[in-house]
Design a protein that fits this description.
With 406 residues, this protein is of the alpha+beta class. Among the domains are: 7-96, Jelly Rolls, CATH 2.60.120; 307-405, Winged helix-like DNA-binding domain superfamily/Winged helix DNA-binding domain (Arc Repressor Mutant, subunit A). Helix content is 44%, strand content 23%. The strands form four sheets. Strands 9, 10, 11, 12, 13 and 14 form a six-stranded antiparallel beta sheet that branches. The chain has a four-stranded antiparallel beta sheet with strand order 1-8-3-6. A four-stranded antiparallel beta sheet has the order 2-7-4-5, with no helix packed on it. A hairpin with a 2-residue loop joins strand 11 and strand 12. Helix 2 (90-96) packs across helix 3, helix 10 (310-324) packs across helix 12 (352-365) and helix 10 packs across helix 13. It is globular and about 65 Å long.
Length: 406
């Protein structure tokens, strides 16, 4: 690990190594000796506000690999010696120490699933348990909404994994009425290259996962059923990776993937994943970059939910949109948000007719924000950042007061 291409840096006890909110964070760190404390000004739900890390642990990867501002601070608890790795050296790190790269990938997949579950719980007030019987529910949902091909896949998947399950007779009856076989067509898992026709299901939410996929051509829609509504999460394109969560942490699929037009994908299974990472470090680099981006966005969503003032949540959402789109957050920098007032209200879980007055009050107080038709214009991203920092400090203060009362 102490190869010349990686810098060894030392910090004395009680000194800061990285600071939350710092922009242009190009490096992450692996601890060689000593202890490091990682903390956040406003800890998100379900996360230890003060993590203590030791030799072999890492920090700062999310910001370095996503090229977004730091989401955490790290300080030396003792004198520490660290391996400093720049974001463009990740491929070299993989070739020299694949286990460390795999540790980062597995930790990230666990952290992302944890964040996703917390966001779903806080946003929708419920989460669906990991239960294969949900595959039958998926079949019913698709059947009732007229997506017959999708319902057939879900019913067949249910029978594949629970052939003697409580809904087996009903699933078989439904498939028979649709003129479809009870057994799902077998996929040749020895073939890396797979082709899917337009609207064909690649995998279904709640289904056990064995493979991740890299799109070679075409597009794939990722969606999730929430409160009996199908929510579109993303439309992925050539070069994008999906399905990585299931292969990394042995959990069921958290969403469904459907071909959006004809699609060719490269399928990588658990057995050959680590070998593929070592042989093709660019794959792992892309995967880590993808996971870092997703974790950064998920963390920002959770942090947004912690802000008590709805106006503050709207301001924070706008700042996050600018950061996500790589806008330079600086004084007197203008920016146009390609979103309408209803869009922003929906993003923070507010109702258009009931809560739009919150937006108008926020914009009336802060003249650098204004509505122009279906877009929102900001005359000064630096002022928007200061406004968000004010709301974050108010939230931290309220949290401390509330904790003191308990």
């Amino acid at each position: 690990m102490a190869a010349p291409s990686f810098n060894i840096v030392n910090y004395q006890a009680n000194s800061y190594i990285i600071v939350e909110g710092k922009k242009e964070a190009y490096n992450f760190f692996i601890i060689r000796e000593g202890k490091v404390k990682v903390s956040r000004e406003n800890p998100v739900v379900g996360e230890d506000p003060n993590q203590v890390l030791g030799p072999g642990d890492f920090f700062g990867v999310v910001a370095a690999m996503s090229q977004h501002p730091q989401i955490e601070s790290a300080s030396a608890m003792t004198n520490v010696s660290l391996i400093q790795v720049s974001y463009d050296q990740f491929g070299t790190l993989i070739q020299r120490n694949t286990p460390v790269a795999m540790k980062i990938i597995r930790y990230f997949s666990m952290k992302l699933r944890q964040f996703d579950q917390t966001i779903t719980r806080l946003s929708f007030k419920n989460t669906v348990s990991e239960d294969l019987n949900q595959l039958y529910s998926m079949g019913e949902f698709y059947f009732n909404t007229g997506k017959i091909d999708h319902s057939v896949y879900a019913y067949q998947a249910y029978l594949k994994y629970l052939p003697n399950g409580q809904f087996s007779p009903l699933a078989k009856k439904k498939l028979m009425s649709l003129g479809q076989p009870a057994e799902m067509a077998e996929v040749d898992e020895t073939k890396f290259n797979r082709f899917y026709n337009d609207n064909q299901v690649i995998f279904c939410e709640h289904e056990p996962g064995k493979e991740l996929y890299i799109i070679q051509s075409g597009k794939v829609k990722i969606s999730k059923i929430v409160n009996q509504n199908e929510v579109m999460l993303a439309v992925l394109e050539n070069g994008d990776i999906f399905g990585e969560m299931a292969i990394l942490d042995n959990k069921p699929r958290s969403a469904s993937a459907v071909a959006f037009g004809d699609v060719t994908v490269l399928a990588i299974n658990k057995a050959n994943f680590e070998g593929m990472v070592k042989a093709q470090p660019q794959l792992a680099t892309k995967l880590i970059t993808l996971l870092s981006e997703r974790i950064w966005i998920a963390y920002k969503q959770l942090a947004n939910l912690m802000i008590n003032d709805p106006g503050g949540r709207i301001a924070d959402t706008l700042l996050t949109l600018a950061e996500k789109n790589r806008a330079k957050i600086a004084p007197k920098t203008p920016y146009t948000f390609q979103v309408s007032v209803p869009d922003v209200l929906k993003m923070v879980g507010l109702a258009e007719n009931r809560d739009e007055k919150i937006v108008y009050k926020l914009f009336e107080t802060n003249k650098f924000l204004r509505i122009e038709g279906d877009v929102i214009r900001c005359a000064d991203l630096g002022l928007l950042e200061k406004l968000v920092q004010y709301y974050q400090k108010m939230t931290a203060k309220e949290t401390k007061i509330s904790s003191g009362r308990r």
